[in-house]
Design goal:
It is built from 23 helices and twelve strands. The protein has about 575 residues and is an alpha/beta fold. The structure holds arginine.
Amino acid sequence: MDYKAYIAEKLAVDGVSPEEILESIAVPPDPTLGDYALPCFKFAKILRKSPVAIAEELAKRYETDEIVSSVSAVNGYLNFQVDRAGLFKNFRESFSPLLTEEGEKAWTGYAAREFTKNSDMGAKKTVCIDYSSVNIAKPFHIGHLSTTVIGGALSRIYRFLGYNVVGINHLGDYGTQFGKLISAYKRWGNRADVEAGGIHAINDLYVRFNSEATEEMEAEAREYFRLIENGDREANELFETFKSITLAYVKKIYDRLHVTFDSYCGESFYIDKIPAVIEKLEKKGLLVESRGAKVVDLEEYGMPPFIVLRSDGASLYATRDLAAAFYRKETYDFDKCLYVVAYQQNLHFQQLFRVIERMGEPWAKDLVHVAYGMVSLEDGAMSTRKGKVVWLEDVLSRSVEKAAAILAEKNPDLKDREKVAEQVGVGAVIFGALYNNKIKDIVFSYDKALNFDGETSVYVQYTCARAASVLDKLGGVPFHSGEGAQLNEREFALVKALAEFPDTVRAAAVHYEPSMIARWCMNAAQLFNKFYIDCRIVNAETEELRSLRKTLTHIAFSTLKKGLGLLGIEVPKEM
Ligand code: ARG
């Protein structure tokens, strides 16, 4: 079993879950203080004792074992001294599946199975993840980067932990803008142009309509939208054409980012499911009239009313989300439903979840808005108002181009150069979007993201390539048995970092925070490189050391590759 989890369970602080204890156990910056430390300040309130007293009590109670050789209380911290050989033995055992090819493939859900007694994680649970959720006929721009890569990472993370994941692309495919588009198409467009120009041609039509629209054109657009709604054949065929062109376009980008969806049910899918939801609201006596509109009053929660139907009887974005939530619960019976959407929509989701709670649905508590900050480019922020939209495709291409130039310079004989440039360039964009706490606004810089020596995916990828080339040279060397290993500082630090991987994945799921995995990758890669520089691996001093170091290198490579893989980043064989 994972030894940190083992320590957490053994500590058993009343009123605190082992999960919480586990997350609090940290590696102190100064190793003379201990190999691990548990700050007890957090528990003072619950236990109504001083942190100093708590640490002392825990220290007294803790019986040392194979891994923890001594425990001491210092100023409210519980410090653990670890027996290196004991730690390595446990590590070698926990990670042994990674040492065979089949084992490595099957190494999913590992983290969940190892430590789930008191947590609500684990197999057989279903999580719906609503992410990316693009708008038909509109640009797929840099504003969609975060939702796509955060949602994609969360999908992989939850799958890794044994969940059944339903990835949902809640398409923006309903609204008067489609009437405008048809009107514009009829005026200025034709099938050949739209098919050749794809999404860009469609977007141009839409932009042109908005800049030239007269009263009369607006009326015409409303009429076309009515035709779509009433099932008019021609209007719907045109709409389907716009939709399939948009989807074909975005799917190419999804392939590059390694994301997939199980459902593309967009807003229009829910139109015929709205009456049933309205009826439920009415039965509960929650619908009130307000200036002709039908709303749910949320004043007692300090929120504006949730508008369900406009005065002309039309539904809104919010109404469609309400119907979608019920549909998802009925269809997937989720344990959790995540909405990976920018923080600008905080209020919308607070209202939505509150309305469902007021309807008496106990699963309202399982709805989570996973909010994130804005991404802009160093060389020009994205702005739709000025018509200056940064297409995500262009960001990827530019990054790949720059990656190719750097690779050509660093390694002129590189095989598969195009493929590697794609892996490096796209990886840099993904990592750049995932490296910080998701709620932060970020400014993306190509040069920073592609720096081989920076806190970047390139650095981690390069580390993997380095480890792979060492492993190539160690073909016949056996793995270490795990017994009686003497670790030096570098090896010990690396083992500690690698051992955190399963916990990190789990914490990333609990906090909906893929950045935890990105940070883990960075730290583990840095410690691997220190180990690589200071310790001879291929020409190690003894056979025993050679197999120990091979084992470490192998596990470092495999976990780093998994870590990047969970983020959607591939690892080139060579760089
Ligand atoms: N299409 C929406 C937008 O671009 C995002 C939809 C998010 N998902 C949801 N269920 N509301 O703002």
